[in-house]
From TrEMBL:
Belongs to the cytochrome P450 family. It is found in: Membrane. It is a single-pass membrane protein. GO terms for molecular function: heme binding; iron ion binding; monooxygenase activity; oxidoreductase activity, acting on paired donors, with incorporation or reduction of molecular oxygen. It comes from Rhododendron griersonianum. Its cofactor is heme. GO terms for biological process: brassinosteroid biosynthetic process; brassinosteroid homeostasis; sterol metabolic process. It holds the Pfam family p450. The keyword Hydrolase does not apply. Heme binds at C421. SUPFAM superfamilies: Cytochrome P450 (SSF48264). GO terms for cellular component: membrane. It comes from the Eukaryota. The lineage of its organism: Eukaryota, Viridiplantae, Streptophyta, Embryophyta, Tracheophyta. This is Cytochrome P450.
């Protein structure tokens, strides 16, 4: 090999070595949080996405907490990332929304939900859409919706009790989707030739995945599902415009009215992305929480006893035993709300919250460079024994006397700050009403217990099959898990 070739090889080796060194040691004007950037480009992505089969802190997070502390750096899918389970820092991130941080999710999230989805918009536009959604999920609307939620719960429980067993995650997701789709777009699966929910099912598996748009990959299936669902929503939009209704009957009518205003800032693309996100978000997280709630009741008979007593007391206080739930009865469910909070604490329906540093930030001696992604990890906060005594023990009474309607430094099951989930109250209404119908009218038993499977983009009790029976018609079975 000649001198020129040797020089070229030497330069290549030096360049690669320098590149690897710079990758593993990012430039920073101060002190970065401790951690490892992993392999060039790949970072520590594979470890981050590894499944977790318990309710405890994800192994990826726990291992690094033990090594580096509650705030550490890493690299995921080519991005420089700070991960936090520090309550003060996480709270600081939420409080500085729009000032020092902004919502910033992975590329796959924006491709699947749309580049102008509500989670990716900021400032006035985000507040405008949030107020639109509150028109649907605010207290006044929920109060009117209560009878429909109760009817849906009773109707589905009745149907499930006639079957040998149901996969509860899938069955509850279908129940919630049907109700939400009716309120959003007057969609009725039985009268439609297209199965809209099927288009959403693939999303969960590819929501946070490697962005490889190749047939057979989870990401490709996600995009195909989005394309089909968006096509259905666009067709519906055109139909409504061609034949406008005289009176508003669903959220889509309200959106069309906003689109028709001369001074509107709403565009058709943003409106369709909003409908798409609402349809998906409303059923996926709530069905997870509902399934886990049923599972926790099977595993904690004393909790079930107390919950059942609260709801049977509501029935006894009624003048007419056949009347439906009232808003006052719903608001009186003290132990039920404690139970729901404990359920979502352990179910961790929000596995990761993504933000981006808008400028260089100093916090507790560390420097967060501008442009870096910050991930707040609610599961690690919710499973911190310094905050929650014996965190893996299901104990609704730990919420007694605690303010639990919103977010706090130590409770972020529904997010935090100005981006606190606007559908939180809708989720609580659906769960409380379902639990009321369940514990007062039915018994149930696990036919197949399933397993908890979690990744940063996917978490659900997989294969949890349940047999339901009306209280006076309990089916005989050899299963020991029966309540």
């Amino acid at each position: 090999m000649g001198p020129v070739a040797l020089c070229i090889v030497a330069l290549v080796v030096i360049s690669i070595t320098h590149w690897v060194y710079r990758w593993r040691n990012p430039r920073c004007s101060g002190e970065l949080p401790p951690g490892s950037m992993g392999l060039p480009l790949l970072g520590e992505t594979l470890d981050f996405f590894a499944p977790n089969t318990s309710c405890n802190i994800p192994p990826f997070i726990k291992k690094r907490i033990d090594r580096y502390g509650p705030v550490f750096r890493t690299s995921l899918v080519g991005r420089a990332v700070i991960i936090s389970i520090d309550a003060d820092f996480s709270y600081f991130v939420f409080q500085q929304e729009g000032k020092l941080f902004k919502s910033c999710y992975p590329v796959t999230f924006n491709e699947i939900f749309g580049r102008q989805n509500v989670g990716s918009l900021h400032g006035f536009m985000y507040k405008y859409l949030k107020n639109m959604v509150l028109n649907l999920f605010g207290p006044l609307s929920l109060k009117k919706m209560l009878p429909e939620v109760e009817l849906a719960a009773y109707t589905n429980l009745k149907r499930w009790s006639s079957q040998e067993s149901v996969d509860l995650k899938d069955a509850s997701a279908s129940m919630i989707f049907d109700l939400t789709a009716k309120k959003l777009i007057s969609y009725d699966q039985e009268k439609s030739s297209d199965n809209l929910r099927e288009s959403f099912v693939a999303f969960m598996k590819g929501l946070i995945s490697f962005p490889l748009d190749i047939p057979g990959t989870a990401y490709h299936k996600c995009l195909q599902g989005r394309k089909k669902a968006m096509g259905m929503l666009k067709n519906l939009l055109q139909e409504r415009r061609a034949k406008p209704r005289e009176k508003q009957s669903d959220f889509f009518d309200y959106v069309l009215e906003e689109l028709g205003r001369e001074d509107t800032i709403l565009t058709e693309a943003i409106a369709l992305d909003l409908m798409f996100v609402l349809l998906f978000a409303s059923f996926e997280s709530t069905s997870l929480a509902m399934t886990m709630a049923t599972k926790f009741l099977l595993e904690n008979p004393l909790v079930l006893k107390e919950l059942r007593e609260e709801h049977e007391a509501i029935l006894r206080r009624r003048e007419n035993s056949n009347s439906g739930l009232t808003w006052e009865e719903y608001k009186s469910m003290t132990f039920t709300f404690q139970f729901i909070n404990e359920t979502v604490r352990m179910a961790n329906i929000v596995p990761a919250i993504f933000r981006k540093a808008l400028k260089e930030i100093k916090f507790k001696g560390y420097t967060i460079p501008a442009g870096w992604t910050v991930i707040v990890c609610p599961p690690a906060v919710h499973m911190n024994p310094a905050i929650y005594k014996d965190p893996l023990h299901f104990n609704p009474r730990r919420w007694e006397g605690m303010e639990s309607n919103g977010a706090s430094k130590h409770f972020m099951a529904f997010g935090g700050g100005m981006r606190f989930c606007v559908g939180t109250d809708f989720t609580k209404v659906q769960m409380a009403v379902f639990l009321h119908c369940l514990v007062t009218k039915y018994r149930w038993q696990a036919i197949k217990g399933g397993e908890i499977v979690r990744t940063p983009g996917l978490q659900f009790p997989n294969g949890f099959h349940v047999q339901f029976s009306e209280k006076n018609e309990l089916k005989q079975d050899t299963t020991t898990n029966c309540i």
